[in-house]
From TrEMBL:
Transport recorded as keyword: yes
Top-level lineage group: Bacteria
The protein, known as: ABC transporter ATP-binding protein
Keywords: ATP-binding, Nucleotide-binding, Transport
InterPro entries named among the record's database cross-references: AAA+_ATPase, ABC_transporter-like_ATP-bd, ABC_transporter-like_CS, P-loop_NTPase
Residues annotated as domain ABC transporter: 2-229
Family: Belongs to the ABC transporter superfamily.
Length: 288
């Protein structure tokens, strides 16, 4: 994508001059709420036109070849309207029909294959309203997979999932990423830390980083500190938006913070992690 931009009305700029490229595998799009991730994904999924710039899938271009693009694309939006009264199997059958699979026998085979792929074959005949959050997300992935897309766009898929479901879902995406391009957006660093090699970080409509995780970690080398602060000293801290974590102790706080120089007298350098780099780029730390 080249020089992509999006304005809502005349005032709100949701995307500013975004340039991004990706190949096969899992690609993470990380950013705080309101960064513009959903806007970017909706444009990529041909759901909404950009105000400027271009998006290309090989030789196809958004706005010109939308029909062709939709055939190679699977999309799981942030809020997928699921038909609660349908069973998982009925829902997938309906989506397959919408995607143009007219032959009912072929459709049935496809639906069963998808249910197995996301490990919901045992729940196929249960109504979606009885599904857990994780199961709903997996049926969401199954619907996106019908048509065997080369590219999948998955918007904040782990929101509202418990830790166990989150890991299971991450494993599923990792497996699916072996065969195709998957773009996954999240504001939770742990969602992409172990599974994505390449990532982009967005903040306030701008792309503030694009590259690999090891390259990103190098940016914060020597800038991460840990130490204890007395209760009253916390508010005197200059770079509070750099606070990565803050844990209350009997006498004050255990602090982890990103700062160019030693932020307080007892702070010692720490080995950087992705969360530190994310706070460094977006300044979305725990404002004390
Ligand atoms: N339909 C809309 N009309 C006006 N402004 C919008 C619209 N949709 C999004 N925005 C604004 O555009 C900006 C980017 O929103 P977007 O939903 O793309 O961010 P996000 O990174 O996906 O965050 P979230 O995870 O909270 O959805 C925000 O300031 C948001 O308020």
């Amino acid at each position: 994508m080249t020089s992509l931009s999006k304005r809502y009305g005349s005032e709100r700029v949701a995307l500013k001059d975004i340039n991004l490229a990706f190949g096969k595998g899992l690609f993470g799009l990380l950013g705080p709420n309101g960064a513009g991730k959903s806007t970017l994904m909706q444009i990529m999924a041909t759901v909404m036109p950009p105000t400027g710039g271009t998006v290309e899938y090989g030789s196809y271009r958004i706005g010109k070849n939308d029909h062709e693009i939709r055939r190679i694309l699977g999309y799981l939006p942030q809020r997928l309207g699921l038909y609660d009264k349908l069973t998982g199997e009925e829902f997938l059958n309906y989506i397959a029909l919408l995607k143009g699979m007219k032959d009912s026998a072929a459709r049935r085979i496809k639906v069963l294959e998808m249910l197995e792929r996301v490990n919901l074959q045992d729940k196929a005949r249960r109504k979606i309203k009885t599904y857990s959050g994780g199961m709903k997300q997996r049926i969401g992935i199954a619907q996106a997979l019908i048509g065997d897309p080369q590219v999948m766009i998955v918007d904040e898929p782990t929101a509202g999932l418990d830790p166990e479901e989150r890991i299971r879902f991450r494993d599923l995406l990792e497996e699916l990423g072996l065969e195709r391009t998957i773009l996954i957006s999240t504001h939770i660093v742990a969602d992409i830390e172990t599974s994505c090699n390449a990532l982009a970080v967005m903040n306030k409509g701008e792309m503030v980083y694009q590259g690999t995780i090891p390259q990103l970690l190098k940016k914060v080398d020597g800038k991460v500190w840990t130490g204890q602060l007395e209760e009253g000293d916390l508010h005197g801290l200059v770079n509070r938006s750099g606070i990565v974590s803050r844990r209350k102790t009997a006498t004050g706080y255990d602090i982890r913070i990103v700062a160019d120089a030693c932020p307080f007298y007892s702070a010692i350098p720490a080995v950087p992690g992705l969360e530190d780099a994310y706070i460094f780029l977006t300044g979305s730390g725990h404002h004390a």
